[in-house]
Write a structure and sequence with these properties.
2,3-Dihydroxybiphenyl 1,2-Dioxygenase, domain 1; nine-stranded mixed beta sheet; eight-stranded mixed beta sheet; 5 helices; 21 strands; about 35% strand; binds fe (ii) ion
Length: about 325
């Protein structure tokens, strides 16, 4: 099974106009807007689809407080779809649309789908040129300035689950995902869909409430210039920051998260670690910066020093 990307994420919405403004301001391309369906695309053509919450075409909400409905992964070929259907139909229902898209539910109860990837793959490019002490490569040339972001693709999606080991086992044992890193004690696990890939394409965080929910969807942008320019522009349009801007100690990515009125958060990120079969998964005992846990209601102490693990943060909260 060869996975190539996140093809589509579907939401319901009580207010389609608000959803349209939110994702337009985010920098996605609005491909169509009718009273029954709103379609946005990243630069490569992967989609966010939003339907009115009363639509019969929508799958169930992931939780009462979130409009997330389904994530669809892109695979290389029809043979991959056949292999996935064969593997998963052993112990669950797997539906297939007329266009070949598969729909099912993972072991955590998250609605997932699979279809053949039709979007642009990455093309080699020079990338951003940086100056640093002893390495002055950008000469007589100013850095790019972004008045807004235009997200390239969705790079990863993150969920709260009651049992991260159960989630990990499903994606590794049934779909061939690889382990990138984890927090010990089941606090979190980072997975990628191929040995050579971004550090994580899926990340599961242990839910303190023992429920399942969307944590965030991450949109990759070119570089920190676009992340900051995009984040500033999005803020100026009135959308609230969840956390950031900042840099993840795990995966090295620069990030800026915003609250999503449809549930969870959305993230601009760039410069994530890219790993291959030589990568050795690490076991983190202490979260050097527990940014991922903030959305679950844990507030960091404002002393500039505390970088608690989830367990430590829970203990702090209990005091
Ligand atoms: Fe992320």
């Amino acid at each position: 099974m060869t996975f190539l990307g996140i093809d589509c994420v579907e939401f319901g919405a009580s207010d389609l106009k608000l959803a349209k403004k939110f994702f337009s301001d985010w920098g996605l391309l609005c491909k169509s807007f009718t009273s029954s369906k709103l379609v946005f695309e990243t630069q490569i053509g992967s989609q966010i689809i939003i339907r009115p919450e009363a639509s019969k075409l929508l799958r169930a909400k992931i939780s009462p407080d979130s409009q997330f409905r389904e994530v669809i992964f892109g695979v290389r070929s029809v043979a991959d779809l056949v292999a996935i259907a064969k593997e998963l139909s052993v112990d669950r229902e797997v539906e297939q649309d007329e266009d070949g898209t598969l729909h099912t539910v993972d072991d955590s109860g998250i609605q997932i789908g699979f279809r053949v990837w039709t979007h642009t793959l990455e093309k080699p490019q020079v990338g951003t040129i940086w100056n640093s002490p002893g390495n002055r490569r950008r000469i007589n040339q100013v850095s790019p300035v972004y008045a807004s972001a235009a997200p390239f693709k969705m790079g990863h999606i993150v969920f709260f689950v009651p049992d991260t080991k159960r989630a990990e086992d499903f994606y590794r044992q049934r779909l061939g995902f690889c382990l990138s890193d984890r927090y010990v004690g089941g606090a979190g696990v980072f997975l990628r869909w191929a040995q050579q890939s971004e550090h994580h394409n899926l990340f599961f965080i242990k839910s303190r409430k023992n429920d399942v929910n969307l944590h965030h969807i991450a949109f990759e942008v070119n570089d920190v210039h676009e992340m900051l320019g995009g984040g500033l522009a999005f803020s100026k349009k009135g959308w609230a920051t969840e956390v950031g801007p900042g840099r993840h100690p795990i995966s090295s990515a620069y990030f800026w998260y915003f609250k999503n009125p449809l549930g969870g958060a959305i993230e601009y990120f760039c410069d994530s670690d890219y790993v291959n079969a030589d990568w050795k998964p690490r076991q983190y005992r202490i979260n050097r910066f527990s940014e991922w846990h903030l959305a679950d209601g844990i507030v960091q102490r404002d002393d500039g020093k505390i970088r608690p693990s989830l367990a430590a943060a829970q203990a702090m909260k209990a005091k």
